[in-house]
Fold each of these.
Amino acid sequence: MRRGRDSESDVTHRTVAQLTRTVGALGHALADLGEAVAHAGALHYLTSLPRSSQRATAIASTRSQLHARIDSTRRRLHQAGGRLHQQADLLAAAPASNRTPRTTNTAPVAPPIAAPSRSR
């Protein structure tokens, strides 16, 4: 065991690292979703234009990009969900003593005091 670190801090460190990676994947998924919405808006605009071969090409290209963004979003969300499940399984398998938070503050907390009314 490394000096200055206990098993609880190791579990906490792994949890924070895993959640950080998951949040990154979720951020990428949201970015992909934003691009998908932009492509959907472009499709809406393109369908309002007069029919032409350029319009048909642009619609096909934009539709392909839209499907690619949706697929990427789905893949990233699936990966993030898998990471969260994996981390939950690791935490569930950890001994109970590693999951119990340590409390060092034993002093009672005073209830909040209501602020005086400012209305007259």
Amino acid sequence: MPSAFSVRAMPLAGSRGAVRLSLGPWEPLLRLHHALAKAGSSAGLAPKKPTSAFRPHLSLAYNNRRRPAAPVVEAVSGLRALPAVELSVSAAQLVELRREGRTYRWDVRKTIPLG
């Protein structure tokens, strides 16, 4: 498992589906994704997407109905000038994710400290 690392949460972005922060640098997040995907494959869990398709981000909110992107982008545009925030990543949580109606819910099944 990769060692603990830090990333920066960068400008807020909006889309028709969500409001999110981009994360960077990508390299440590891609290494972690690859290690978790490899461990899952060893346990018989096929990854839904390869690491090459992974786009690191931190979702803050999801739209629970169809809507055009423009109003969401406009609503968060004034926040894009905020400075980046440093985040420490010292563990990975394996979760059981499910959708209940229009809401995502999850239960933490295992926390894995990063070395």
Amino acid sequence: MSGQGPQGADYGKAGASLMAAEENWGAFIRADCDVVSYVFGQGTALGMTGETCVVGHYEARIATLRALMANYLD
């Protein structure tokens, strides 16, 4: 995002927005996956289901970022 881009583009703001989105995304997955820990308490399934929650969010986010790169940044 170091280029100028098309007329009216502001890559600096786009980069700042992406950084803010990443920070907020991290807070979201922590809160969203906390639901699992509150449901399972200290049960034996907590570790596996909690990790599954986090991994699922990361897989989805990576797919979203790849689509962003392919559609807008290449």
Amino acid sequence: MLNPPRALPVRGRTVPATTGPLLVLDARLEGRDTFLTGTLTLDGHDMPVRITTLDDSTTLQPTQPLPARLPEQWSATLHLRHGQRPRDIPDDLRAAAHAARCDLDALDDAELRYALTFLGEATTPAIRTDRLTAIVTGLPSLEGDSE
């Protein structure tokens, strides 16, 4: 069973960008997986966002249209699903790696977390199949296999 999402109080500012407004947090998220998705609750609106942390800042990029007017400075709650997901390798990924004679155990924790998130966020069976192929293609061959 999944744990409930983690809810973090956050403060930030709205910054215009060519791709649409970005929501820049006042403080970098520390000790959290980022480059993933979450939901920002701001002024009663739940907004799905992609979370990106680089150097000293964390930016939230809305993945759907925003309410018409966002305040320049804001306080909100960021709900993080990730970090709560099971880290079990799904059967289709295990089978694809086995069929290709590739080593899933070669992935470190961060790489496995990224691969499982990448696969888990596929929105159609065709996208999931393409993502399975991409993950398996990037894996090393099992020890003892010659190329």
